[in-house]
Every structure is written in C-alpha cells, then in structure tokens.
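Minutes, project huddle
Topic: does the predicted pose make sense with beta-D-glucopyranose bound?
PN asked that the exact inputs be recorded in the minutes so nobody has to dig through chat later. Recorded below.
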Amino acid sequence: MLARCLFAAALVVGSVSSAYAQVEGPKMFGKTADGKPVEVYTLKNKNGIIVKVMTLGATITEINVPDKKGKFANVVFGFDDVKGYESKDNQYFGCTVGRVANRIAKGRFTLDGKEYKLAINNEPNHLHGGVKKSLDKVVWNAKIIPPHPQRGGFPTLQFLYTSPDGEEGYPGKTDVRVTYSLRDRNVLFIDYYAVADKATPINLTNHSYFNLAGAGAETVLDHELQIEANKYVPVDQTLIPTGKVEAVKGTVFDFTKTTRIGERIEKLYETGAKGYDHCYALTRPEKRGEISLAAKMRDPKSGRVLEVITSQPGVQLYTGNFLFGQKGKDGKTYKQRSGVCLETGGLPDAVNQPTFPSIILRPGQTYRHTCVYAFSVE
Ligand code: BGC
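Predicted holo structure (tokens), as shared on screen:
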C-alpha cells in the first residue's frame, strides 16, 4: 500500500526515480506551426549526465556528458525552439527516423505483388520516411514508466505513435513505441517496437549528430573511430546501394582498426556522398536479436568516448557532409563535417535489394531494435 501511495505521489509530481537515475517532466517546449504543444522530458543519472527528449519526433535534444577532466558539454545537435526543429535547417537532428530510415530507390517498392509509391524528397529517391508525417515530424504521446526490475530498476521514458494505414504511402496501421532509459553506468538505452495490421517495411533509427568535443565544435574529422564491420554497402552517385556488400579491407571504408575519421575521407569528397554516408554490415558474433558493439568513437582532446551497441545488422556512418553552417542551439554553428551520425538499423533500400536482410514486418510479428549509446572517457 505504501509503495502504491509513493508511486502515485511520484506520478503526480511528474518525477519517478530509482536509486539514482530519474526522468523528470513534462515541461512545455513550445508549439508546432499547426498549434500542437510539444513537451520535453529530462533524464538524469547519479553521475550528472543529462539527456533531454521531446515529443516532436521523439527527438533527443541534448546529451550532456563529462570529459576526462569532469567538464560537462552537450554533445548532440539541436535547436533552441520548435521553430528551429520545423525549419529547413533541421537535417533530422536527434529525431526518431521512420517508418523507413535511409533511402528507398526512386521512392518505390513492391510488396506481395503490389507496388507502393512514396514521396521523392531526396531526388531521385525517398529519404527517411517522407515529407509531412514521417516519424520525426509528428508529435508523439509520452509517458514516464516507473522503475521495473526487467529494465534494470531504472525508469523509462516511453513514446507512442500510431501511424495510420497509408500514411506517407506506407501500408498498414502501424503502432510504434520508442523508449529511452538512462542508466547509472552512463548508458542510454533506446528500444524500438512496432506492430502493424498489414505487411509493411519498417526500419527505425535515431539520428543524433555527435561531436564529442561539444556540439558546435569545428569538425569531427579528428575523432577516432572503430567499426565492428569487415564489410560495407557500396552506393551509386545517388547513394543507392549497388546491390553488393563488399570487403572494407584496403579501402577508405576500413575502420576495423581505430582510425581518425579524417584520415582518408578526402577521397570521397568528389562522390555523391561528399564524405562518409555509408552503411556498414556489422560483424555479429552473437545470435540475431542480441546486442553487440557496432562502433566506438573517441575525441582525443576531451577524451570523451561513445560506444554504439545494437541488435541490428547495420550502422550508417554519416559525417555531416550536407551540413551547411546552420545556426543551432545556444548560438552554435554546425559546419560541414562537424557532426557524425551512427545510425543503427537495417541495410539501405532493403525493400528493393533481395539479398539484404528483410525489413518487412508482418501482422502478428513484432519489430524490435535496441540501440545503446554508452559514454565514458579515455
Ligand atoms: C543520410 C544523409 C542525409 C542525412 C539527412 C543521413 O542519414 O545518410 O545522406 O543527408 O541523413 O540529414
């Protein structure tokens, strides 16, 4: 009974905590252009790490982590207000991407004999779920889920969105759930689930741009990177896979050993990608469904380290090649190649690539995807 009362009290004040880590909110963040309120929640842990997530796009707006001297900085891109997030300057900063992250060639695919047409929003292809109601552009329902032993005794911030049948051209009513849970050992769990009432493609991801020296720092080319992949997905000039999955050995794509991002990137400046914008096919010793390391990135000056761990077969390395100096949060400027995304998920254009792992979700099945951002210093 006492426990029940405490639980109810915690819900009333909008703050639920385990031993240390807690989720606070909601707080008003602003309103969308069409008048919908947008709220923001704050996740905190015992080491002072702060992560903020808002209901527009179930988007991470801030991640504050310490450097090797204990100095905190926000390491992800964002804007000060909703207007910034709704502006053309926003290249998917921190959001949940879907229904299908990455490109779909010519915005078309055929499923069970029926052809579907999607918006062409990245000539000549479809990118990141569409134009109006892609998952980054809708306001999600959020709720704090109190600590539970199954979630390591930590509270969880849950976002729900139901995408109606046919939204952005995708078939089937699809219920999507994204949860964020910050743990005391400085890891942020992002768990995705989806169910649909018709067969439909699904490939969700988080699109945070990291600069471990602090968002707004000049470049990410000095960050050191290691990716757990012997193979990558070659693409054409429009960034659509050629259909092959090739060895990274002896190419500019080899990050099997820790390498500076800028070491060989210039060789890609004249390509359609203008840098790294490629998916790696992860080497996964574990069984499918289990999580394992995808990539480890370190900023040598601050000593901040990010490890990305996932249950998915791929990770897209995108070095912010299309950033153009837009003004972001706290007066910072985001120059070309000053942020890096490590997007966990399926392989690009999987709906049109018969040899890639399928991203089709069928009625009765559940899509599950775990992505963990683990922070430390070295
Ligand atoms: C893609 C880039 C694209 C960017 C948009 C990334 O996931 O791989 O090509 O420009 O998203 O912000």
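Observations noted during the meeting:
- Residues 10-377 form a domain with the Beta-galactosidase; Chain A, domain 5 fold (CATH 2.70.98.10).
- The chain has one domain: 10-377.
No decisions taken; revisit at the next huddle.
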